[in-house]
Specification:
The structure holds 2 protein chains of 2 kinds. By secondary structure, chain A is mostly beta strands. Chain A has no helices and 12 strands. Chain A has strands at about 5, 10-15, 20, 25, 30-40, 45-50, 55-60, 65-70, 75-80, 85-95, 100-105, 105-110. The radius of gyration of chain A is 13 Å and the shape is globular. Chain B is an all-beta fold. In chain B, strands 2, 4, 5, 6, 9, 10 and 11 form a 7-stranded mixed sheet that branches. Chain B has a 4-stranded antiparallel sheet with strand order 1-3-8-7, with no helix packed on it. Classes of the chains: A mainly beta, B mainly beta.
Amino acid sequence: AQSVTQLGSHVSVSEGALVLLRCNYSSSVPPYLFWYVQYPNQGLQLLLKYTTGATLVKGINGFEAEFKKSETSFHLTKPSAHMSDAAEYFCAVSATGFQKLVFGTGTRLLVSP
Amino acid sequence: EPEVTQTPSHQVTQMGQEVILRCVPISNHLYFYWYRQILGQKVEFLVSFYNNEISEKSEIFDDQFSVERPDGSNFTLKIRSTKLEDSAMYFCASRLQGADTQYFGPGTRLTVL
């Protein structure tokens, strides 16, 4: 069985500051891991994913995440926040990548000027 | 860029009424999913659908729920007799055969009074 924990329902940063959104997972098999973003009144958009291979994955809009098996983590980072990054971010895990996604509760990122 | 669409964006209904939520997946996708998110809770998997059959369903997806692909473009979720606890955001997603990324629609907010 898979599960995801996202620490912090809200994260506030200033424009230009580092963004760090935390995700820890539990999986009985090697996981497929995803970060999705939801802007207001829009669907969930894939930011990046880890399947196999390189543990540091880069996504759209300057985001990246590192798969750390020893820590069962897949934290999302961005060196410098933009106002346009304000959105809700969801971490998700899947057993195979082809099956259902199991989501965390989401983290709302607030960016102040 | 092709996208998943959902209608309506917001549906208000009385308890005990039937509702049908509609989704138009991306045209060449063959795998379809419904998820829901009760306010303040996790996005939860409901059902997956392939080749006109349910592939997997969660324990939430009881006899009150059904899915259908009535034609070559639409994918619907029917709730036969709505309960207050069915109030949630319902997301449709689709996936290309052989791909590990699900593409989500903007969601339908269902409010049961």
